[in-house]
Amino acid sequence: MSSAVAIRPPARPDRAESVVTEGRAVRWGLTGIAILFLALFLVLPLVTVFIQAFAKGWSAYFAAFQEADARSAIRLTLLVAAIAVPFNLVFGVSAAWAIAKFEFRGKNLLVTLIDLPFSVSPVVSGLIYVLVFGSQGLIGPWLIENDIQVIFAVPGIVLATIFVTFPFIARQLIPLMQEQGTAEEEAALTLGASGWHAFRTVTLPNIRWGLLYSVLLCNARAMGEFGAVSVVSGHIRGLTNTLPLHVEILYNEYNFVASFAVASLLAGLALVTLVIKSLLEWRYSADIAAGARRH
Amino acid sequence: MAEPPLRPRRRFRQPSVIPGFGLTFGYTLTCLGVIVLLPLAALVARASGLGLSGIWDVATDPRVASALRVSFGVSLLAALTASVFGFLVAWVLTRYRFPGQKIVDAVVDLPFALPTAVAGIALASLYAPNGLVGEQLAKIGIEAAYTPVGIYIAMVFIGLPFAVRTVQPLIVEIDKEIEEASATLGAGRWHTLVRVVLPPLIPAVLTGFALAFARGVGEYGSIIFIAGNLPYVSEIAPLLIVIKLSEFDYGGACAIATIMLGISFVTLLAINLIQAWSRRRFGYV
Amino acid sequence: MSFTPNARRPSRRKLALALCAGTVCLVSAGFGSALLISGAALAQTELLNVSYDPTRELYKDINAAFVEEWKAKTGETVIVRAAHGGSGSQARTVIDGIPADVVTLGIPSDIDAISRLSKKIPADWRTKLPNEGLPYTSTVVFLVRKGNPKGVKDWGDLVKPDVKVITPNPKTSAGGRWNFLAAWGYAYEKEGKSADKANAFVGQLYKQVPVLDTGARGSTVTFAQRGLGDVLPTWENEAYLVFDEFGRDKFDVVVPPTSIYAEPPVALVDANVDKKGTRKQAEAYLQFLYSDKAQAIFAKHHYRPIKREAAKAEDLAQLPELKLFKIEDLQGNWDDIQKKNFDNGGLFDQLSKPAP
C-alpha cells in the first residue's frame, strides 16, 4: 500500500519537500528508533527461534520431522487449516458484502460481534466449546450417547480454530469494500448483470489482493493457534496434537532443538506469508495503486 | 410476487439495488450464531448459575481482583506503548524512504502469524536473566522475565501490529495539499503536524489502541512462559481461569471469563462507534 | 445462490436457503472429520491412558512392553495412546468427556474428583487394584546447582534468607502439591506437631519462590534452562531425568533425611471402557503395571516399584533409603487434604495473600 503515495517529483527537491516532511536529522532519527524498536521486539524473538533450532546442526534439525508424532501433528494441522480457512473465507466475503454494501440498523453491533473473537481470551475460546460439547455440557451428553466425539477430537479443534480466526477475513474486507462503495456494482446491475456476475466481475477484482492477503494471514493464524486448541485437544499423542501443541510437548520433554525446529516450521510459515504479501504488493503495486486512486 | 407492506423491513435497512442482502446477511448471522454467540451464551449461562451476587463475589475476591488489575493495567500500558511506537512505525513506513523498507513493513505482521506459544518461549529465552537481552537488562538492574515487565513485553509484542495496521492506511490517505497549505500559511512543521495532520488520525490511533488493549487482556499462550505467575504480583486473569478450572470450579472460571468478555465487548463496541463516527466526520475509516 | 438478475429484496426463501447452507457447511466441517477419525479408530483396539506430565518417557516404554506382551498372549494388536498434561487439567478432560480407558494421575485427589464430579470412576476405586491403586510410588528430592553452593541439605534450608526456591503452582500441578505437602509435613514433625508453625514455615517457603510455573516441567525448565533459583524440589524421577537431559556436570541431587511418600495412583475409567468395549484390554493393561516386567521399567525410570525384587539392583541403588511419611497420617483423608490446602480459600490461598 505504501507505494501508492510516492512523493511527486518536486521541481526544487529540497525546498518543495521540506514543507511536507521533517528535517533530515529528524527523519533518520525517527526511522532509526522505529527500526530499533521492531528489531528488539519482533525480529529478535524470531531469530532466536531459528538459532535454537539449528543449535545442533542440520541433521538434528531434520531429525525432528522424522518422528511419527511430528508427522501426525503436521497432518492434523494441515487438515484443520484446510477446513477452517475455506469456511472463514466464505463467511468473510458474505459478511463483508452484507455489511459494506448495505445500510441497516445495528450494523455497529454486528461488526462488534464479529470482532469479538479477537478479544476473547484463547483460554475462554476453548472453554466455551467444552461447555457446549463436554460431557457436562449443553449437548455433550446427547452427542456422547450417539458416539459423536466433538471435543478432544478433530471437530473440536476445527471449531476452536474457526472461532479464533473468525474475524480475520471479514475484518480485512469490510473497510476495503466500504471504501470502494457501491457505484460500480450498481452500474453493472443497471447494465443487466446478475448479482453473482456483478460480484465476480466487479467486486472480486477490486478486493482480490486484500482477500488473498487476509486468507494468508488467516491460514497462518489457524495453523499457529495454541491457547484455544490446547483446551479442546486433550493432548492425545499422534491423534489430537497440532503443531503448536507439539512444540510445547517437545519443549516439556526437554527436547529443545526439536521443539524449536518444529517452531521454526511455524515461524517459517509466518515468514512465507509475509514474503508472499510483499511480493504481491511489489508485483501488483501499480494495480493496487490504480484501484486505490480510482475513487 | 405479492409484496406486502415492507414498513418494518424498510426501517431496518435502507433500500438498495444491490442484491444478495438476504443471502449474505442470513449466512453471516447463522455462522455468527452457531460459532460465536451460542457458545458464548453457554458461558454466560454457566456463570449466571452463580447469580449476580455470586459473580460480584468472584470479581471482588482479592486474588481475582488483583489478577484483573494486572491484566488490565499492564495491557493498558502495553497498548499505550504499542500505540506510540506503532504510530511512529506507521509514519516512518509511509512517509520516508529507506533501504529495506519493504522488509520492515512485512515484519510488522509477524506477531499475527507467529504462534503465541512459540513467541512466549522465544521471548522467555531472550529476556531471562541468562538470555541475550535479559543479561544486558540485568546489568542495569532491570529484571524483565518473570516479573510484570515480562507480561508487558509479551503484550507489546502481540499488540503492535494492531496499532500499526490501523493507522497506516490513514497516513497513506492524508492529502499533502493540506499540509502544504498549512506550511504556506506560515505554520511550522511541528505546528502543522499537531494541529493539522494528527487530529483526523486520532480515531484510528484509538482503534489500534483499543484492539491492542483487548488482545493483551486476553492473551495467555505467550505470557505464561515469561510471567512469574506469582499470585498478587504477576498472575494474569486468563491464568486464573485455568487455575479455577484445575480446581474444577467451572462457575468461578466462567464468572471471570464473563467479566473479561463484558469488558472486551464494551471496548470493541466503543471502537466501532468511534470508527462509524469518524467515517461520517472525515469520510473514511 | 441466485442467478436471477435484479433480485432486490431478501425473500424468505433465500433466507431459508442461507440458513440451510450455513448449517450444512458447519455440520460437514465439524462432523465429517469426526467420521474420518472414528473410522480409523474402529479398525483396531485402542486404549487411551490419560496421564500426568512427568510420565511421558515412562509410559513410552511401558506401552511398548504391554503391546508386545498382549500380542504374544492373545494375538491381538492393541494401540496404546497416551495423553499428558498437568494432573488436574487431565482429570478435567476426563470429566469433560475424553474417552480415556485408564487414568494414571499424580495425586489421589484428582481421581477422587473424577469420581465425584462425573461418576465415571466408582468412589471405591482404591479397592479395585493392589496397593490402593499404586503400582509404584515416588518422593520429593532436591535438585541444586553443581557443588550445592547454598548448602541445601534438608527442608529447613529452603527458608534460609538467600535461598530462592523454584516450585510449580500447587493449584495446577500435582508435583507442586506434593512439594507443598512435603514441606508442611517436615515442619509439622519438626515443630512438635504444631499445625500453626507448619503453616508459617510453608508460608515463608513460598515467599522465596520467584516463579510459580503451572507444571512441574515448566519449573524444571525455569531452573535448569533459564538458570533461576538455587533449589528445585521435585519428583525423584524428574531430578534424575534432568541429569540425563541436561548433563550431570551442572547439577547435584540432594536427598533430604525425610520426605513425603508420594502416591501417584492409577484407575480404570469404568464408564468409558464399558461404552467402548475395551474393558478386557484396559484391565489387562492395569494388571500389567503390577507385573515384574513393568516393575523393572518403573525402577529404570527412577520410580519406586512396589515389588523391589523385580527391579535390577543397579536401578534400586539409585533409589536411596530415606524416612518417608504419609500425609494421610498427619492430615486425615484425601478429601480433607485437598480441601484444607488447595481448594479456593484453602491454606495455599491464605499463605499467598500479601501481608496487610
From TrEMBL, chain A:
Stored PROSITE patterns: ABC_TM1
Bilayer-spanning residue ranges: 33-55, 76-100, 120-143, 150-170, 254-276
InterPro entries, A to Z: CysW_permease, MetI-like, MetI-like_sf, Sulph_transpt2
Limits of the ABC transmembrane type-1 domain: 74-281
NCBIfam families linked to this entry: 3a0106s02, permease_CysW
Protein name: Sulfate ABC transporter permease subunit CysW
Name of the encoding gene: cysW
Domain of life according to the entry: Bacteria
Assembly, per entry: The complex is composed of two ATP-binding proteins (CysA), two transmembrane proteins (CysT and CysW) and a solute-binding protein (CysP).
Pfam family, one: BPD_transp_1
Keyword set, alphabetical order: Membrane, Sulfate transport, Transmembrane, Transmembrane helix, Transport
Automatic annotation (TrEMBL), chain B:
InterPro entries per UniProt: CysT_permease, MetI-like, MetI-like_sf, Sulph_transpt2
Subunit composition and interactions: The complex is composed of two ATP-binding proteins (CysA), two transmembrane proteins (CysT and CysW) and a solute-binding protein (CysP).
UniProt entry tagged with the keyword Mitochondrion: no
PROSITE patterns registered for this protein in UniProt: ABC_TM1
Bilayer topology: Multi-pass membrane protein
Family membership: Belongs to the binding-protein-dependent transport system permease family. CysTW subfamily.
Top-level taxonomic group: Bacteria
Name this polypeptide is given: Sulfate transport system permease protein CysT
Domain ABC transmembrane type-1: 68-271
CDD domains in the record: TM_PBP2
Functional summary from the UniProt entry: Part of the ABC transporter complex (TC 3.A.1.6.1) involved in sulfate/thiosulfate import. Part of the ABC transporter complex CysAWTP (TC 3.A.1.6.1) involved in sulfate/thiosulfate import. Probably responsible for the translocation of the substrate across the membrane.
Subcellular location: Cell membrane
Residues that span the membrane, as ranges: 21-47, 67-94, 149-172, 193-214, 220-243, 250-274
Keyword set, alphabetical order: Membrane, Sulfate transport, Transmembrane, Transmembrane helix, Transport
Keyword field contains S-adenosyl-L-methionine: no
PANTHER family linked: SULFATE TRANSPORT SYSTEM PERMEASE PROTEIN, SULFATE TRANSPORT SYSTEM PERMEASE PROTEIN CYST
Location (main, coarse): membrane
TrEMBL record, chain C:
Alphabetized SUPFAM superfamilies for the sequence: Periplasmic binding protein-like II
Main location: periplasm
Pfam family for this entry, one: SBP_bac_11
Subcellular location: Periplasm
N-terminal signal peptide: none
The keyword Translocase is annotated on this UniProt entry: no
Superkingdom of source: Bacteria
PROSITE patterns in the cross-refs: TONB_DEPENDENT_REC_1
Family: Belongs to the prokaryotic sulfate-binding protein family.
Protein name stated in the entry: Sulfate ABC transporter substrate-binding protein
